[in-house]
Write a structure and sequence with these properties.
Length: 355
């Protein structure tokens, strides 16, 4: 079978045709942002001209213009007005019972004062003098502790004998946490320990404050600063209770606050606290008419019959009431039965304070 001959190839090959797209799509040109401009130059033409910046020149988004919306601005102003109204309402109602400037005076403390005050509460035997420092109002503005503007009591940071509320509040919180910790170390921790301990401590403080309020009414103590002084002095017993719990647990090796070691430590801390209150409250309840008390200092003399009643109140409060309350607080072993019985004993002790 014979094949046919083919024609020779052409001298030049035909031109190639590339396909042409039927649908043209435009791709946006990508470009980098312009370099940052100095504050002296104008922002005209910059895509970032209208955006807010944070401190340090960092970029802060505008969240799609949400804060520029009229509804958002109205909601912000409404919330701000409600917050200010609520704060003003709380201050007005709180000032009916407690003076905020007076409380600031009792929390004006320093670290050296706190350390020296703790040593004074635990070792008050050789401390002198016990009178509080008074300053004329010309050197500084008078504090709420003084009844007149002629003289005022120095703040705690400047006077060791001045009562404060920083140590009582911190000791109150420390007592609750320490009692819970000791219960856990003895293997008696349960979810009710902290709640019951806090309830017992709160009931003790509440009954003592109510008793002091009743005592000031009977003894005709109308000065609110003297009532705040008594409330501040009532919280120093938690310092002795904390020392009793720590030392007793250490000496008894986790056996609680009972035994000779616990009672020995408790007796010392109770006597130290009673002596501290007796000497400190003497200048609050029993001002000495023979002392050189400046006129207008708020320390007025009292009649002999009133002085005898205040002396009896001072003795009962410093020794009998403090012994009952410190015993209740130091007998906490973490068990629910003992904590509940301590709370019941605290309620019964409130009747002693009221009488």
């Amino acid at each position: 079978m014979q094949r046919g001959s083919y024609a020779p190839p052409p001298a030049h090959s035909p031109p190639l045709h590339h396909p042409v797209p039927q649908h043209v799509s435009t791709v946006p040109m990508m470009r980098s942002p312009p370099p940052p401009q100095s504050q002296s130059n104008s922002n005209y033409g910059s895509p970032y001209a209208g955006q807010p910046t944070m401190a340090g020149g960092t970029f802060a988004p505008n969240f799609g213009g949400f804060m520029n919306d009229g509804t958002a601005q109205m909601g912000y102003q409404l919330g701000k007005t409600a917050l200010n109204s609520g704060q003003e309402y709380m201050e007005q109602n709180l000032n009916r019972y407690v003076s905020i400037p007076a409380l600031k005076h009792y929390f004006n403390v320093s670290t050296p004062y706190v350390l020296r005050k703790l040593l004074l509460v635990l070792f008050p035997w050789r401390h002198k003098p016990w009178s509080r420092e008074q300053r004329p109002s010309s050197t500084s503005s008078p504090t709420p502790s003084s009844s007149t503007s002629a003289y005022y009591f120095a703040p705690p940071r400047d006077d060791l004998n001045s009562p404060d509320m920083y140590i009582p509040v911190m000791a109150f919180v420390t007592y609750i946490l320490l009692s819970t910790l000791l219960a856990g170390l003895r293997g008696q921790f349960h979810p009710e320990v902290m709640g019951l301990t806090a309830t017992t401590a709160f009931v003790v403080v509440l009954l003592e404050i109510l008793g002091l309020k009743f005592g000031t009414y009977v003894l005709s103590i109308n000065n609110d600063s003297q009532l705040l002084d008594l409330v501040a002095y009532s919280g120093y017993k938690f310092v002795g209770v904390i020392v009793t719990l720590v030392v007793s647990e250490t000496l008894n090796r986790g056996a609680g606050t009972g035994g000779w070691a616990g009672w020995t430590v408790f007796t010392y801390t109770f006597m130290a606290n009673a002596f501290f209150l007796l000497r400190s409250l003497k200048y609050v309840l029993l001002p000495d008419s023979s002392s050189a008390t400046p006129a207008g200092s708020g320390m007025h003399t009292i009649a002999r019959s009133q002085r005898n009643r205040r002396t009896q109140f001072l003795f009962i409060y410093s020794y009998i009431v403090q012994f009952i309350f410190m015993w209740i607080l130091s007998r906490q072993d973490g068990s629910p039965a003992q904590v509940k019985s301590a709370a019941a004993a605290a309620a019964a002790a409130g009747k002693v304070v009221g009488t």
